[in-house]
């Protein structure tokens, strides 16, 4: 809650926090990558469906780094400038596996419920 | 990275965070330009997509998990900077806290040390005192809760409720001899005292039950820890050595632990010897033989499973037999009946024994109440200070909220600031408490009385007062943060420091605080005025004698060999020697020192009237020496001797109350028999003016005086008191008397007191009350004045624009001043009215401590109120006057 926020609702990400974390872990699983590239990748892969406000990406990255799911190091980027690259740790990999399983179960369950609803309408 | 490593490398982390986010932003801009945007458009679009940079940074810091520590440091820095920037506020707040916390802690520490702290013994809660229900009023006693040796012996044999009982008595003694002789505080103790208390010797051993039998000789002495340290440097070899106590070689057998200094709160013993050895130290040992001499305090440890009430009723049930068996000889039948009616009971004594009178205790508690009120005013003052400071910072808060500070963060920052002040104030309060407590002890210390007290501050009360002050700081310090959440930052910025609604709410809160401050400080001021006036009444009181210029010489010739019947003539020959000294105007012996609290009463019968009177045996010239006027008849002369007819001189109260106003000269008075004082028929030969007897506050009792030479030889010991009047310097008179006495015999011991100082020292508690209540009263007035000044200043500041307009429209400066002072005076009069009502209610409880004026003395009330009103006037007039001098143009532009 902020002093200046009550009048204008936050235009931040439409996806819940846990989901953003899952997506980041998935993207970093493919190899070391910096923040901007992660943002680009998310947008491309989700075909612009997922609206991630780029600002909110960084707190999530720092949080994951803080929890030990990601490790970071400063390397030269493709443009020649120094950038912070994130890499999935072993702990992060386990977390990704668990989260993915959770997500699949949830998606399956939601799917089942939705099907049941269609059946009821027939 | 550990959180503290991150904390240390905060600067580097900040730089990297900035670099990371900037990298993202620049890449976005570059991509946008590549997609065909102009540079300005590219930047705008990137910024929109990214969000607020500072906000994202703050979120990242939060995600890092060390924000709390980082920002605490930041808050601390900010707080210190803020406080440094307003030294006036900081200084006032700190002083207020230090005084409020310090005064309360000091007074409570004193009360705790004097009255509350439990004895440093095993399970102090089961230690009880045994004494006569309602106190003993018979024979000779140190205080009314003491018992005679005979009664103690009976209790020891017949009590059932205690697993152990013991008795002890205090006595002054001397150790060493000749030039190395010095005074020591002695303790007569029954054998099992230390074992019953459950304290262990730090060296050697203690007395046992085996040392507790008549004819035990001199089994040895136990030293207190402090005496062991000062006399023997704490050497182990001290135990086993022999020292001269009261001229008798005594072996040291043990040392008590450091914290144990006896069973009286403010006393400290040096040497303890067994009660049974009294016969060896002083062969007559009258105190052990006579059951009308009560000098022992009897205590015991309750048996497991027994309650205090059970033990008390067991004592009551054996009392008739005990007092039947110990009836003192030499008294008449009615005295015996009175004695046999005494009943023993048991009383809690976990804190030991207190020598303080009820009124002294009441004074101490009253002081605590006074300092409590001071704390209340101090808190009101702090609250006011915090509020005023808060208003000046509302804009700052609004700005900080607008640029992205979270409300939590703002609250925390104010909280930190309050905490910094509070902690610094509490620390100052702690040192102030030490200074206060030591100062108060100095105020009550005299040549004859040094209180031995452990004054380490009491953590409970320090914690309590500090908590009260800290809460005050925090609650009122946080007001702007909470208020900030209600107002839109934009509005707050526009309205500046003068939001109308908020201003009014705050003003009424401030006015309430000032009203209560003024009310409480008036209560304190009235209390102070009452105590100061009461003290003044006492020191300016005419006691019936002139204490100035009198030296009191106590002479002891027990080391000059002579038969007992020679002692009184010998004392008179010494008196003649003293009178022969040129500086001495007059001198006389007496058996009683006025105002020292002691008393000697005999039953008297005059015609049909059965009553009692104080009796004092004096030499001729006593009344001239004291400056007490002879109102009729004659003084004693050299012809009033042991062989002539007994004569007496009485005071006016005696004539009025016992002789019922009849012409006293030639009347006769018969005294009732007491041991050493057989019934005697006195003829009254003179009348003297009334004079105070045991204390200044008492009403004057009937007094009779008889010639010293006519007193029973058996009653007089080898010594006496000589009053010496001289206008010369006391020191020179004392050395002249000392020289004269040593010419008579080098074995005469003498000690000297300046009577006037003794009289003033008797008023020590009254003086303490006058000084402290005066100090706190003045302090309260100052605090209230600061409060009023602050509120008025704030009101003026808030109305600067309005005042400017008024002045521009032609209002006179005087009119402006008047309108501001008028507004302040509502607050003052409301507070003062409330204060007078409270003071009348409160002063009633202090009325027993006052002397020479009633608790609702109208002049005192008027004077104190007038004083406070003047102070209040000045405090509100100063800012009002400043307002009236405003330049209208500046005032209008003021924003």
List the helices and strands and how they pair.
The complex is a heterodimer of chains A (122) and B (895).
Chain A: H1 17-28, E1 33-34, H2 35-45, H3 54-67, E2 70-76, E3 82-88, H4 90-121
Antiparallel strand pairs in A: 1-3, 2-3
Chain B: H1 3-8, H2 10-34, H3 39-50, H4 53-64, H5 67-85, H6 87-116, E1 127-132, E2 140-141, E3 147-148, H7 149-158, E4 162-175, E5 182-189, H8 193-197, E6 203-204, E7 221-223, H9 225-232, E8 242-245, E9 248-255, E10 271-274, H10 278-281, H11 286-289, E11 293-302, H12 308-325, H13 333-340, E12 344-348, H14 358-392, H15 394-402, H16 407-444, H17 459-486, H18 489-495, H19 500-539, E13 550-556, H20 567-579, E14 586-590, E15 601-606, E16 609-618, H21 622-626, E17 630-633, E18 647-651, H22 652-657, E19 668-671, E20 681-688, E21 703-707, E22 719-725, H23 730-744, E23 749-754, H24 755-761, H25 764-798, H26 800-808, H27 813-846, H28 858-884, H29 888-893
Parallel strand pairs in B: 2-11, 5-10, 7-9, 16-21, 18-20
Antiparallel strand pairs in B: 1-11, 1-12, 3-11, 4-5, 4-11, 6-9, 7-10, 8-9, 13-22, 13-23, 14-22, 15-16, 15-19, 17-20, 18-21, 19-20
